[in-house]
Predict the structure.
Amino acid sequence: MQITSRFTVALHIFTCVEVFKDDHKVTSDFLAGSINTNPVIIRKILTQLKNADLITIARGTGGITVNRPLSEITFYDVYRAIEPVENGDLFHFHESPNPECPVGRNIHMLLDGKLKAAQSAMEDELKKHTLEDLKNEALDLIASEK
Amino acid sequence: MQITSRFTVALHIFTCVEVFKDDHKVTSDFLAGSINTNPVIIRKILTQLKNADLITIARGTGGITVNRPLSEITFYDVYRAIEPVENGDLFHFHESPNPECPVGRNIHMLLDGKLKAAQSAMEDELKKHTLEDLKNEALDLIASEK
DNA sequence: ACCGTTGTAACTCTTGAAATTACAGCGCTT
DNA sequence: AAGCGCTGTAATTTCAAGAGTTACAACGGT
């Protein structure tokens, strides 16, 4: 199992918004073109980002505004906005171990902490990168192409 | 998206093998009872563990033997044996960003390293725990029940 | 009032996990 | 050598979710 591509799509969206906002109106159609997918997919992701209060979307006109300074939005914020994982658990535990078995009734207690730690390690790593980093690195890369 | 419950099932299996090996013959039926699932599910997971050279399975008689000292098998070893993630990538990247877009053709280079780092952080955390830890903690927990 | 855009519902396609049934193959045990 | 318990595995079903697509109502500048 893998984490949905919606996450990388969301990061792609933010990058496009920042790189192109002065030159184009960044619409879901425009984004769909860069990401090479369907505009509706983009709109659904934008809705999730809006619900997480990360962006504002203008109806009628179209156009996306980021609500907070880029330096205050981490990859983790985007991840949490996008991944609707139940309880936020990365690891899916088998549902109903047998309570009459000594191992079965204790297995959760044995593993939960360790799995949570592994998940947190990943999430903490995501917190290290902000959208500002992403924007700057994108601009550098594009500039160096010439 | 979540990591399959097969991973926690595999850890559950190892725990049972260690806790019960002197008292019962640990068969896929027995394990299925503790884990509360179907014996065939167990056998498939056992096959994966066998292919990864972690265990040996006796045909005819039934019974599972762990191939290495428990202290030398980490959660990560089990994870890798179980999770058939393509390329081993935790994050699924959107397939085909538009190469004609400056962002589209650079997005992989921008994100790959960061995503890999997040994945590695999680995996390194899994490497910190061995099956020996798991066994000892299980025995402690069970003993403290009485 | 028009037009470009967003918001959403409804549907399809595909994939994969999980569960289940069925049965062949293996190897002790007697 | 025959029986029995167990493993190995194929085939099938069920279910959930991601991804893509079509269609259309709602919004808001021009």
Summary: The helical segments of chain B are 5-20, 28-35, 39-51, 75-82, 107-127, 131-144. Chain B touches chain A through 61 residues (CB under 8 Å).
